[in-house]
Amino acid sequence: MTTQSDQVQRAAGLLDSASRIAIACHLGPDPDAIGSLLGLGLAMQERGKTVHLLTDGPIPRSVQWLPSVDQIRLKPLTDEPVDLFVALDSSDPERLGEVGQPLIANDELTTLVIDHHATNTEFGDVNLITVEAAATAEQIVYVLDALQHAISQPVAECLLAAFIGDTVGFSVSSVTPLTMRIAARLMEAGAALHEISDRILNIRTLDEIRLWGIGMANTHLEQGVLWSVITEEERRDNGLMDTSRSRLSNTLLCVPEAYVAVSFAANSDGEIDVSMRARPGYDVGSIAYELGGGGHTLAAGCTLKGPMEEVVRRVVTMLKQETTDAVRDS
Ligand code: AMP
Ligand code: MN
Ligand code: MN
CA within 20 to 30 Å of 115's CA: 5, 39, 158, 190, which one? Predict the structure, then answer.
């Protein structure tokens, strides 16, 4: 049987023996994706490796201040030689976007997948996937420990940002005493919890809060399913050109009558970003997976083609089924 620590050792071995490493995280990256990308990348640079950091982007403003963020490349590599490809926080190869495709397609290249999504398809040659990990960054810490690599302040800042993003400031059910011990280590290495939390969780642009206002005003509650809609017209009429996801779903779950919450937001590609959250006991991960997306049991998402009314009807019907089934099972 392969244990998690075997996989950590294998991952560490691959990183140790490679000298030119390409690392990519998922498109539409969140703080865990960017924080893990930079955290692992900077640590490997500290070990003398040549590192290429890749994402399709866009890099959210909340992490644009992270150390060495300008090293991240938003275009595929061309002829740069690489001996190891690391895919981070991505449940399937498509999720890596354009920057990942030439690397995935290269059969000669070893791929290491480091992730914590239950929906991961294990597309690597070595897969370090721990569903219990609160963030992909947690796995990076295990790998650095296996390499006996001391965590520097810049690496600690990136990794703490990753944790804060995926755990909403260490407040969700995936957080364990172990998560808190790792967070304490990152703070001891020089990462400022309060400051990083503020940047990731609190600071919002005027456009973002206006977008939230529209979503908040457009909410519906039926059978324990709370949903909000931001249409293309609303986006346009308000001059809101920001392409980032609205991230409303976390907030919507504050309503006690809601067991699951979902936000539907038209994006600038003419598609609809669907972001789902559930209370413990309910599962939105499998629904997102069925819809071609992915995620975790309690936080998942997908991107669907419109029209909006049809997408809303389809997803809400599936979520109502989930609240009914979960109640029946309990
Ligand atoms: P979000 O609602 O965007 O915060 O996403 C919640 C979780 O679902 C995160 O772990 C995402 O990585 C995952 N997720 C969101 N959209 C997709 C997608 N289209 N495909 C796979 N996973 C997704
Ligand atoms: Mn992510
Ligand atoms: Mn993550």
Answer: 190
